Amino acid sequence: MSAIQAAWPSGTECIAKYNFHGTAEQDLPFCKGDVLTIVAVTKITREQAERLLYPPETGLFLVRESTNYPGDYTLCVSCDGKVEHYRIMYHASKLSIDEEVYFENLMQLVEHYTSDADGLCTRLIKPKVMEGTVAAQDEFYRSGWALNMKELKLLQTIGKGEFGDVMLGDYRGNKVAVKCIKNDATAQAFLAEASVMTQLRHSNLVQLLGVIVEEKGGLYIVTEYMAKGSLVDYLRSRGRSVLGGDCLLKFSLDVCEAMEYLEGNNFVHRDLAARNVLVSEDNVAKVSDFGLTKEASSTQDTGKLPVKWTAPEALREKKFSTKSDVWSFGILLWEIYSFGRVPYPRIPLKDVVPRVEKGYKMDAPDGCPPAVYEVMKNCWHLDAATRPSFLQLREQLERIKTHELHL
Ligand code: AMP
């Protein structure tokens, strides 16, 4: 993975967790792993780029939005003490510097010129380390979230995440989970995830305990340890014979309470699914993976999304909101009551969206109480505004619990 530094017209920082090919003429295609750091609210100039690439180091590069050709991008490369600026033309959904070789996205372009100069003054060697990473580190120290590496023992690998291993650790005698990342570019994505986590605290959200930023670039995010692993694995491994109706409803309520809290704080999760819910030693379900969580109404670009969990308007128009989380919550309820089955069984993935857009809804899982199935279906209204809020969902689930409609 490489990091790409780009000037962006607005906002502060965005991390590409998914491939994005662009839907509008002006969209810049990027790929999973790209880190697009917004250097400034306004476009950065040629001179600013040159300052950012100082001290000179042949092969050091960044990408900025072109000042002369708005909508196009400029690749700035340091070579023999000088900075060269190459215009990246964006035309008909393709990127090109020389109008001979064309690329689908910036990542491909960078990869091409990393392996071969192909007419540039030098091949690309090193992306400019993002200023944001340094600022974020300082912020963690200032706000008291920095932990001491000397007090952390890493014990064993317990999972593989999007950006690196998850390990069981011991911090001052307490079991903790540690996400480890050694790569600079991805470290920034991790810091973004951690900085979201510092703002959120709820008994049904996996709690951040702190971060460790090593001098040599390693980064560790320390969270509470969830002994029973992901909810989807938990449901699959225990199954119907072990988990009764009470238990399924309890998990549903646990997640709903976390989501009600996020709703109240205007946070949208965007990736709610049973695989992103973890189970503690004492069987409490907690929502995890805040990598995509953004304050409500932000319009982050997204390409490949977990189609079966994502609301139609979010897939179609990138309209993520608490109401699109409600849609995903309905799918998660279906996962819970089917003991971890993959949603839309027997429907080829390519047919899911067209059928859902026409109003198709999954049947109730075997043995699912009708009252719970009604809650699911309400989450799947095509009209987002008609879907209930998490507050209403929590009330409905509690009613089901008190009236024992879940058995
Ligand atoms: P993630 O990177 O969050 O998707 O995590 C990948 C996998 O690591 C999960 O599916 C879990 O099995 C495991 N894992 C992540 N976080 C924790 C945690 N806090 N406690 C225990 N296991 C975890």
Automatic annotation (TrEMBL):
Catalytic reaction equation(s): L-tyrosyl-[protein] + ATP = O-phospho-L-tyrosyl-[protein] + ADP + H(+)
Domain Protein kinase intervals: 152-406
Keyword Transferase: yes
EC identifiers of the protein: 2.7.10.2
Subcellular location: Cytoplasm
InterPro entries documented for this protein: Csk-like_SH2, Kinase-like_dom_sf, Non-receptor_tyrosine_kinases, Prot_kinase_dom, Protein_kinase_ATP_BS, Ser-Thr/Tyr_kinase_cat_dom, SH2, SH2_dom_sf
Binding positions (ATP): 179
PANTHER family per record: TYROSINE-PROTEIN KINASE
Family to which the UniProt record says this protein belongs: Belongs to the protein kinase superfamily. Tyr protein kinase family.
UniProt keyword terms in alphabetical order: ATP-binding, Cytoplasm, Kinase, Nucleotide-binding, Phosphoprotein, SH2 domain, SH3 domain, Transferase, Tyrosine-protein kinase
Chief site of localization: cytoplasm
Single GO molecular function: ATP binding
SUPFAM superfamilies assigned: Protein kinase-like (PK-like) (SSF56112), SH2 domain (SSF55550), SH3-domain (SSF50044)
Pfam name, any one: PK_Tyr_Ser-Thr
Domain SH2 as annotated: residue spans: 30-128
Any one cellular-component term (Gene Ontology): cytoplasm
Protein name according to UniProt: Tyrosine-protein kinase
